[in-house]
């Protein structure tokens, strides 16, 4: 061993001796700490972690906790719950493949839930989109507390949110138990158990001997659940209109509070199976497993658009105080139809497809068809185009009749123009003679309405379908980044009232294609039966209506406006091909001439319409004569 090594060891040894000497605790300080710990034990503030070796609740009887050393103020404010009145907040995590849940021992509640496979999109100052983790139940103003009715406290109740629970996490890290003992020998225990690859969380209350600590005149505990809904989507208008509280009474169908205004539902004496706080695409639901809730008071408060939160949802739920245990389950996740349907009890109905026949069509026809097309094509945007094509093919027989009727009207257009010149200035007579001409040649002027009328239910169904289906959330197609929200092709430097700051390119294309389609049809349509002024007004309205709809459709889901654009494109293609290559105009002329020579039956819609025009003309002539008499 050389000289340098020996010197090094000596220096290290010297440093260790100095360190131990200088850093050793002062004997007086040790005595002071021991005295403090003894006083804390006497006051009952240091509670043994009894949960570390917990036995099942039905096999264990809790010994009374001594609170004689608690301060008079704490004993007065918390009564039998005073042993849990002081402590230090600690946080715990439960995690599986799809979610990460943060819990606190203060109140024994969920602090936030992060969904691993879903994201929130925010816009920066340049309107660029950025994805951040999506979290539910994270607002610091939220409350999830039990109000224990206690007779001898000033407020009449003790809130679990003010109590510090003893926490015990399972060995596999998938469940955690929070317990708050009482001075009467009972306790209140909450157990959360996370399920593998699931958004479900088993939630169990164990309350042996708890009734001894409660006011004997109270039958129920009140679970107060306050949830400030975060703005999770770019289109806050849609999100606001699809967010509310849903609930399911035991003896009735599901129902919900108003989505558009403040509302309250009082279910006094009505047993309830589940309550769900719902955003547009995500929900936090609390379901019973066994005994139902004994009632509920549900409130929705719509917050100002400038507020950082969307709505304030408040659910006051009644749980029987005499129960030794009460089993529930949380669902905290995306509103996927099949996932929710697996829970039963109409849980899938918190997806706002609608309650009428349109809602049924969305659930059982359009949704399965979209799923099939998506599995076949792999791209949801292509599925929308194929669905549009299928709808148009299904309606083509009616479209053909409409175009055939328009072709007949085009054949008669020269004769109608001749009538206008002959009866110039007498619009009533022109209308009546035009209807006679239609009847004589077998032309139905309303033949073009049926395809449009039959498509309207499909439009209304899709209007509800795209903003309600999480399958389209943040799914892009072409320039659209989210088929469940508007497509912002570019942004204006300012916001236009009733329009917005973004410009939907799908909507612009729909307006242009609609005007082009209208112009093409107007060349063969005749408005003479509507009167001169009315005809001109109708002509202008045909062009102005798409412009008016520009303001409404700009904020619509891009999946719907994409459907409308390709619907127009297919309309134009069908019209051009059918009129120019399928319909034989010479055959139409022969058919109309043959119909003219046939004896006409009396009655029918056109005869009634003709008679109504005659009566209208007679009334007009009487008014004209009366007006001339007054002038004399």
SSE map:
Blueprint: H1 3-23, H2 27-43, H3 72-78, E1 91-95, E2 99-104, E3 109-123, E4 129-136, E5 143-149, E6 157-159, E7 166-169, E8 175-181, E9 187-194, E10 200-206, E11 220-230, H4 236-241, E12 244-249, E13 255-256, E14 263-267, E15 272-278, E16 282-288, E17 295-302, E18 309-320, E19 325-334, H5 337-341, H6 357-377, H7 380-394, H8 396-422, H9 427-441, H10 450-468, E20 490-496, E21 500-503, H11 505-522, H12 532-553, H13 558-582, H14 585-597, H15 605-631
Antiparallel strand pairs: 1-2, 2-3, 3-4, 5-6, 5-11, 7-8, 8-9, 9-10, 10-19, 11-18, 12-13, 12-15, 14-17, 15-16, 16-19, 17-18, 20-21
Helix pairs in contact: 6-7, 6-10, 7-13, 8-9, 8-13, 8-14, 9-15, 10-13, 11-12, 11-13
Class per helix and strand makeup = alpha+beta
Which descriptor suits the 3D outline? elongated
CATH fold description of the largest domain = Beta-galactosidase, Chain A, domain 5
Helix tally?
15
Strand tally, please?
Answer: 21
Which CATH C-level class of the largest domain is it?
A: Mainly Beta
Our count of domains comes out at: 2
Gyration radius, in Å:
37 Å
Largest sheet: 9 strands, antiparallel
Structure description:
By secondary structure, this protein is of the alpha+beta class. It has 2 domains: 288 residues, Beta-galactosidase, Chain A, domain 5, CATH 2.70.98; 242 residues, no CATH class. Helices cover 41% and strands 24% of the residues. It has 15 helices and 21 strands. Strand 3 and strand 4 form a beta hairpin. Helix 6 packs across helix 7 and helix 10 packs antiparallel against helix 13. The chain is elongated. The N and C termini lie far apart (142 Å). The N terminus is likely disordered.
């Amino acid at each position: 061993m050389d000289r340098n090594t020996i010197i090094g060891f000596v220096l290290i040894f010297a440093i260790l001796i100095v360190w131990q000497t200088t850093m050793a605790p002062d004997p007086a300080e040790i005595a002071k700490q021991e005295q403090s710990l003894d006083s804390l034990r006497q006051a009952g503030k240091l509670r043994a972690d009894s949960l570390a070796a917990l036995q099942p609740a039905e096999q264990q009887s809790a010994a009374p906790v001594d609170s004689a050393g608690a301060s008079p103020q704490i004993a007065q404010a918390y009564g039998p719950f005073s042993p849990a009145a002081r402590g230090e907040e600690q946080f715990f995590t439960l995690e599986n493949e799809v979610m990460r849940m943060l819990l606190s021992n203060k109140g024994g509640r969920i602090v936030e839930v992060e969904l691993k496979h879903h994201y929130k999109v925010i816009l920066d100052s340049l309107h660029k989109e950025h994805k951040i983790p999506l979290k539910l139940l994270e607002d610091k103003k939220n409350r999830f507390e039990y109000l224990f009715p206690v007779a001898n406290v000033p407020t009449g109740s003790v809130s679990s949110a003010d109590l510090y629970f003893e926490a015990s996490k399972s060995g596999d890290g998938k469940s955690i138990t929070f317990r708050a003992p009482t001075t009467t020998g009972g306790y209140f225990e909450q157990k959360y158990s996370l399920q593998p690859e699931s958004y479900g969380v088993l939630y169990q209350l164990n309350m042996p001997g708890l009734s001894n600590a409660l006011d004997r005149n109270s039958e129920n505990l009140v679970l107060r659940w306050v949830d400030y809904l975060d703005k999770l989507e770019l289109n806050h208008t849609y999100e606001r209109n699809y967010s509310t509280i849903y609930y399911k009474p035991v003896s009735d169908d599901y129902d919900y509070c108003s989505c558009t205004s403040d509302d309250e539902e009082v279910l006094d004496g009505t047993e309830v199976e589940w309550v769900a706080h719902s955003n547009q695409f995500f929900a936090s639901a609390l379901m019973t497993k066994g005994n139902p809730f004994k009632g509920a008071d549900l409130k929705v408060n719509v917050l100002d658009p400038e507020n950082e939160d969307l709505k304030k949802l408040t659910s006051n739920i009644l749980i029987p105080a005499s129960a030794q245990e009460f089993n529930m389950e949380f669902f905290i996740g995306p509103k996927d139809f099949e996932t929710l349907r697996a829970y039963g009890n109409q849980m899938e109905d918190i997806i706002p497809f609608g309650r009428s026949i349109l809602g049924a069509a969305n659930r059982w026809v359009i949704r399965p068809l979209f799923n099939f097309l998506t599995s076949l094509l792999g791209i949801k945007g292509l599925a929308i185009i194929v669905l549009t094509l299928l709808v148009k093919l299904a309606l083509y027989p009616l479209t053909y009749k409409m175009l055939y009727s328009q072709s007949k009207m085009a054949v008669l257009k020269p004769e109608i123009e001749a009538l206008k010149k002959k009866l110039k200035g007498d619009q009533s007579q022109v209308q009546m003679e035009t209807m006679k001409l239609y009847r004589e040649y077998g032309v139905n002027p309303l033949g073009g309405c049926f395809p449009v009328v039959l498509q309207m239910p499909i439009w209304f169904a899709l209007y509800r379908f795209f903003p309600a289906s999480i399958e389209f959330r943040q799914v892009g197609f072409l320039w659209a980044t989210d088929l469940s929200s508007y497509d912002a092709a570019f942004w204006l430097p300012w916001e236009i009232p009733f329009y917005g700051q973004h410009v939907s390119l799908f909507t612009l294309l729909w307006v242009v294609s609609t005007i082009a389609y209208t112009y093409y049809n107007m060349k063969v349509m005749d408005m003479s039966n509507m009167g001169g002024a009315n005809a001109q007004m109708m002509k202008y309205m045909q062009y102005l209506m798409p412009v008016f709809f520009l303001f409404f459709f700009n904020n619509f889901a891009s999946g719907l406006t994409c459907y409308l654009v390709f619907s127009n494109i297919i309309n134009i293609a069908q019209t051009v091909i059918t009129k120019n290559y399928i319909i034989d105009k010479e055959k139409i002329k022969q058919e109309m001439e043959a119909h003219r020579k046939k004896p006409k039956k009396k009655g029918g819609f056109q005869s009634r319409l003709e008679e109504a025009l005659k009566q209208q003309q007679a009334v007009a002539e009487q008014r004209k004569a009366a007006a001339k008499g007054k002038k004399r």
